[in-house]
């Protein structure tokens, strides 16, 4: 009797959990799903109910010089920012993790500044700053602004990774005749590669989608978010949905792949049994 | 002046301080060419710091370190002719077994074919010929230990440093590796300097042992001398275990314990000590036999109350309590039944076998 009650309640619990999970995923992915759905809507002004499906918007989207141009601009600028912030964050994280530093917690909390600051405030500040160097407005300003934002958490993520790095690897290599530069190239860089790549990808996606700060300093430069924002003032073209769907698929695939890769790398490294 | 080339490593009046705390106090020792020397001591005694000074990861505050007669203070680790086996092995996880072993040779810009040949030889020496292409994650702890050893040996360092080399292995593997390490040392004729807290390992492996305590070297001697003639109370207790009886040297070549004349220890044991010197009598547990109290015993003897009897096969350990409450331990052959707990027995031994240390 009692077992039947407990199985019944277990089944109930499982149903409840399933329901809860479904709701959460719906909440997370419904807006995205709607975009993908509308990309296939044949009506020039997408909306429910869907009466006819088409893939022609994807073709038309690729013909749209303005949209494709802004996509390429965004890709280029985000790559630059991600590269810059990873390059900046790595040495900073190494120093924070490996060298004795005074007022370390103060330094760390200051590094976090640009992340906790409202983006609107950061944007305003940058606008004022740009008056001193009007030549940078546009692409250089966007790259710098996004580097500021992304390098701060890139430093924090890499800091924790460097903290966990076994120092005896470095000592062993030096002991075997490798100088500082060789140790970095032969030991530190290869072992930190998964962390560096994941930080780069994170910074890239963040810079790619960032709108608020870029809007402040863009001048006449049109990144993809700015271009979409501008087009919102008229009717949202189905081409925007098509492009967005494409980006969503690519981003999800990329992040899934990189996660899997990082997990595999970490598993290989932690498999060192005697450690 | 001594012929310096005879010494592989010289540590000359080294002191190391970290802020206000002193890790090493005025330590000197010289390791001969081809010798296997172990630095033995409890954790925190400064033994690892000493090893790290030889390898170049730490510099002394004052004093000099010489390798093959040349001072190396301030010289980077990668410019020193030493190789180290790390406690956690520190094998590079992104490289294969063979690549790990060849790393030092590659850093020394040895030709590729020569590297392959020497790595092959080394794999044979450490009995891992078939595992060269394995990843580090795919080998066992014992195999990793060998790879770490091979990686250090293959560069033919003038000094091989070993930091608790067998500490991570289980007992059976440890015994096996001890024999192997000893064999490799004999075959290659290299100078080995090891650090351990395991006295048995030190006694088995070493030509000479430096016993360290609280930043000082208490004694630097051959294993047998350490065991038979420890210079200090600490060494007597740390190496082999010992009972220590506090005593005072009296006029006329005998000892006083608690003001009473202590029979059985004569002038030969007292030797150079003078009347009034405060000393401890060192008595190894395995010297002691037991007898019923009150019998006529011509040798050195203490009366105890048996507080514990531990039986472990061939030997039984009898823990006795002296009148002042301190413990006195005897290891007796288990040929006769042990005394009852709580009974009063005499512990006696050949007084001429015990010796004195200052206190």
Description:
Chain A has one domain (65-270): Orthogonal Bundle (MetI-like fold). In chain A, 79% of the residues lie in helices and 0% in strands. With 275 residues, chain A is mostly helical. Chain B starts with 6 loop residues before the first strand and ends with a strand. Chain B is of the alpha+beta class. Chain B has a 6-stranded mixed β-sheet with strand order 6-7-8-3-9-10, sandwiched between helices. A 5-stranded antiparallel β-sheet of chain B has the order 13-12-11-14-20. In chain B, 42% of the residues are buried. Chain B contains 9 helices and 20 strands. In chain B, 25% of the residues lie in helices and 35% in strands. The A-B interface holds A 166, 168-169, 171-179, 182, 186-187, 190-191, 268-269, 271-275 and B 55-57, 76-78, 82-84, 86-94, 103-104, 107-108, 135-141, 144-145, 151-152, 155, 168.
Mean pLDDT of chain B: 89
What proportion of the residues of chain B is helical, as a percent range? 10-25%
* Main sheet characteristics of chain A: none
Report the count of strand segments of chain A. Answer: 0
Largest sheet of chain B: 6 strands, mixed
Which CATH architecture of the largest domain in chain B would you pick? 3-Layer(aba) Sandwich
CATH class of chain A: Mainly Alpha
The proportion of residues forming helix of chain A, as a percent range, comes to over 70%
| Secondary-structure-derived class of chain A | mainly alpha
How is the secondary structure organized here?
The complex is a heterodimer of chains A (275) and B (359).
Chain A: H1 2-39, H2 56-63, H3 65-98, H4 104-111, H5 113-116, H6 119-130, H7 139-163, H8 167-175, H9 180-209, H10 212-217, H11 224-232, H12 238-270
Helix pairs in contact in A: 1-12, 2-12, 3-7, 3-9, 3-11, 7-9, 8-9, 9-12
Chain B: E1 7-18, E2 21-32, E3 36-40, H1 47-55, E4 62-67, E5 70-71, E6 82-85, H2 97-107, H3 112-125, H4 141-153, E7 159-163, H5 171-188, E8 191-196, H6 199-205, E9 208-213, E10 216-221, H7 223-228, H8 233-238, E11 243-250, E12 254-257, E13 260-262, H9 267-270, E14 278-283, E15 289-291, E16 300-312, E17 315-321, E18 327-333, E19 344-349, E20 355-358
Parallel strand pairs in B: 3-8, 3-9, 6-7, 7-8
Antiparallel strand pairs in B: 1-2, 1-4, 4-5, 9-10, 11-12, 11-14, 12-13, 14-20, 15-19, 16-17, 16-19, 17-18
Helix pairs in contact in B: 2-3, 2-4
């Amino acid at each position: 009797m009692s077992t039947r009650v407990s199985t019944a309640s277990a089944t109930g619990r499982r149903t409840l959990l399933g329901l809860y999970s479904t709701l959460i995923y719906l909440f997370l992915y419904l807006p995205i799903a709607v975009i993908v759905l509308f990309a296939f809507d044949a009506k020039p002004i997408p909306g429910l109910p869907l009466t006819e499906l088409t893939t022609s918007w994807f073709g038309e989207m690729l013909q749209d010089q303005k949209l494709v141009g802004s996509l390429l601009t965004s890709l280029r600028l985000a790559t630059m920012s991600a590269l810059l912030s990873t390059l900046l964050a790595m040495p900073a994280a190494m120093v924070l993790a490996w060298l004795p530093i005074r007022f370390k917690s103060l330094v760390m909390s200051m590094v976090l500044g640009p992340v906790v600051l409202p983006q609107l405030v950061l944007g305003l500040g940058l606008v004022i700053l740009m008056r001193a160097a009007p030549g940078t407005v546009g692409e250089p300003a966007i790259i710098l602004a996004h580097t500021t934002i992304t390098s701060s958490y890139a430093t924090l993520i890499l800091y924790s990774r460097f903290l966990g790095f076994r120092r005896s690897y470095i000592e062993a290599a030096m002991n075997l005749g490798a100088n500082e530069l060789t140790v970095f190239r032969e030991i530190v860089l290869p072992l930190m590669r998964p962390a560096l790549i994941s930080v780069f990808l994170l910074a890239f996606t963040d810079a790619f989608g960032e709108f608020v700060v870029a809007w402040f300093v863009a001048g006449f430069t049109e990144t993809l978010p700015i271009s979409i924002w501008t087009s919102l003032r008229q009717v949202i073209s189905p081409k925007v949905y098509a492009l967005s769907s494409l980006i969503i698929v690519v981003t999800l695939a990329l992040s899934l792949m990189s996660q899997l890769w990082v997990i595999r790398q970490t598993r290989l490294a932690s498999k060192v049994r005697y450690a | 002046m001594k012929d310096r080339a005879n010494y592989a490593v010289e540590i000359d009046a080294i002191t190391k301080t970290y802020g206000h705390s002193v890790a090493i106090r005025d330590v000197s020792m010289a390791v001969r060419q081809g010798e296997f020397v172990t630095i033995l001591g409890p954790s925190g005694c400064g033994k690892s710091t000493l090893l790290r000074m030889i390898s170049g990861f730490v510099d002394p505050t004052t004093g000099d370190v010489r390798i093959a007669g040349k001072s190396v203070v301030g010289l980077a680790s990668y410019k020193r002719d030493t190789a180290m086996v790390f406690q956690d092995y520190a094998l590079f996880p992104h490289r294969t077994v063979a690549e790990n072993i060849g790393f030092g040779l590659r850093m020394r810009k040895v030709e590729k074919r020569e590297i392959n040949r020497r790595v092959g030889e080394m794999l044979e020496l450490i009995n891992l010929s078939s595992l060269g292409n394995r990843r580090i994650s795919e080998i066992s702890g014992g195999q990793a230990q060998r790879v770490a050893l091979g990686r250090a040996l293959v560069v033919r360092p003038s000094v091989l440093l070993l930091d608790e080399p067998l500490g991570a292995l289980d007992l059976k593997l440890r015994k096996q590796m001890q024999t192997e390490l000893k064999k490799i040392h004999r075959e290659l004729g290299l100078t080995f300097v090891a650090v351990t807290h395991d006295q048995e390992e030190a006694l088995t492996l070493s030509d000479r042992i430096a016993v360290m305590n609280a930043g000082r070297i208490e004694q630097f001697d051959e294993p047998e001398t350490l065991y038979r003639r420890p210079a200090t109370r600490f060494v007597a207790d740390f190496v082999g275990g010992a009972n220590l009886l506090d005593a005072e040297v009296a006029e006329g070549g005998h000892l006083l314990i608690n003001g009473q004349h202590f029979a059985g220890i004569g002038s030969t044991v007292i030797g150079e000590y003078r009347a009034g010197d405060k000393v401890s009598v060192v008595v190894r547990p395995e010297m002691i036999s037991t007898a019923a109290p009150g019998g006529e015993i011509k040798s050195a003897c203490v009366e105890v109350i048996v507080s514990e009897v531990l039986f472990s096969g061939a030997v039984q350990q009898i823990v006795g309590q002296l009148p002042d409450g301190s413990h006195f331990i005897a290891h007796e052959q288990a040929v006769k039944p042990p005394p009852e707990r709580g009974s009063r027995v005499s512990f006696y031994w050949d007084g001429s076998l015990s010796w004195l240390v200052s206190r």
